Every structure is written in structure tokens, then in C-alpha cells.
Amino acid sequence: MIQSMTGYAAKTRDVAHGSLSFELKSVNSRFLDVHFRVCEELRMAEPALREAIAGRAGRGKVECRVYFMAAARGAAAADAE
Question: What would the pLDDT profile of 37-71 be if each residue is shown by its tens digit?
Fold first, then answer.
């Protein structure tokens, strides 16, 4: 269980077709208030992300940003060879 409501975390991971970045910010708040900034391609993952955050944080204001940067087509083709 998370002990502090104030925090920041960022993680980037290379995936099959590009790079996926997550950023979480949280501050003290009386109730759980989760806001998302998610690229359109990943909008379908928002309910699962919301559920995962609510399962770990009982309260606080949490901002979650998720970005996807597609790999350049030339780089992806070179990796496949």
C-alpha cells in the first residue's frame, strides 16, 4: 500500500512499434481524484488504469499521463532484418 500521497514517477519502455511513456503525479487530497491525459490510441486502457490506481491509492489527487511515440518506419524495418 502506498504510504505517502505526494509523489512523482515516470517510466518509458520500448515496445514493438515504438515507445510507451507513463508519468504519475500525486498530491494530498481528502478524496481520490484521478485525472488522465492519454493519447487517443490508448484511450481504451483508461478504465483498467483507473482501476489499478484506485486499488493502490485510497485518496489523493492523481494525474496520470500516458504517451505513445511510434517508431520511425525505417528504424522498424531495419530492426526486422
Answer: 998 888 999 999 999 999 988 889 999 999 888 88
Say if CB 60 and CB 26 are below 8 A apart.
Answer: yes
Strands laid side by side in the 60-70 sheet: 7-15, 18-27, 60-70, 32-38
Residues 10/67, Cβ–Cβ less than 8 Å? no
CA 14 from chain centre, in angstroms, equals 14
Helix ranges (H only) for the chain are 46-56, 73-80
14: Cβ–Cβ under 8 A, 6 or more apart, which residues?
20
Residue 27: partners with Cβ closer than 8 Å, 6 or more residues away: 5, 6, 60, 61
The model's pTM is 0.71
One-letter amino acid at 12 equals T
